[in-house]
Request: fold
Amino acid sequence: MKILVLNAGSSSQKSCLYEIADDALPQSAPKPLWEGKVNWTQDRGVAEIEVKTASGATLHESIYGDSRQAHVAYMLYTLSRGATKVIGQLSEIDVVGHRVVHGGQDYRHSVVITEEVKKAIARLSNLAPAHNPAALEGIEAIEKSLGEVTQVAVFDTGFHSTLPDAAAIYPGPYEWVEQGIRRYGFHGVSHQYCAGRAAQVLERDLASLRIISCHLGNGCSLAAIKDGRSIDTTMGFTPLDGLMMGSRCGSIDPGILIYLLRQSNYSAESLDYVLNKASGLRGISGVSSDLPKVIEAIAQGNDRAQLAWDMYVHRLRSGIGSMLASLGGLDVLLFTAGIGEKSAGIRQAVCEAFGFLGLKIDLEKNQNQPVDQDIATPDSTVRVLVIHTQEDWAIAQQSWQIMKKNV
Reply:
């Protein structure tokens, strides 16, 4: 079975092609036959196309045009043409899986995309304005390029649909609940994959583990996972809630927003920009939303960069503490995504705070770029894992499973 995966971002569209046997899923992620990426520059008419194949062929081009769909179609064209050709024709693709950030309350599991599903994704775009519209563009680009091929939506919010009401409902008026205002949680595809992979690495039953999953990238969230199910998480109604992030503020006193609206002539649009684009590491450091650049500034004596680091670590530790309370104990602390996988300093700073649990990390293993590895010492009471998140493979797995059900 040939499975194409599209993972849409606000400024990029990543894609990859897997070939999986019809009879069983492999235990570990296979290497994609083909990987493509469209990066959109500030000039919306220009796109950077990057393609590579399992055999080592590459392509890097700048293309022009006024349609994102056209850019995606060109990227897909490289699947069956030129040096990066890996299939004879696009019709060989059996199913296309899409990461969709927000599925609301209606979509708790992956589904085959219909007109009704597309309308729901569009309707929920006001809750994920940087991502849901991009996913729709990808879906429509596939319709134009591949016609009637089966498409599957894999929702980031789906994994968190198991949150108990006490964790999901905000303490506002009950009318909010009736309006669908509740904690949905995000990064669900990543949290679910990493929890399963952690159980594999440890050779343990996932249902027996209490896990805190730390997805730390430009966007950051925690998930408390018990019996293989999400029971608490830090992101909420939108991806703005929770931890301090690259350029997002995370949780703040809502009274600040009321104050700014009354005293500083902010509009909803300007507040949205400040909270999503000009806060977090970028807003505090004044340097960048990119943690390595903040660390460089700290080395040069930049006090604001040091403050950004200290705040980031403080809020991350606090968030883990709240997840710990929800779980009633901890078997596994796992780190994933760009910062979680690459920043030994963040992992060490976090783990040092939980020594009282008997958690100990091996400093040498932590520094040695671990991948899918336990970096705790043998006598640690908590296993500490660094897991390479593979959202694309998780989407491919769920697409495969839906196709097998529909046979």
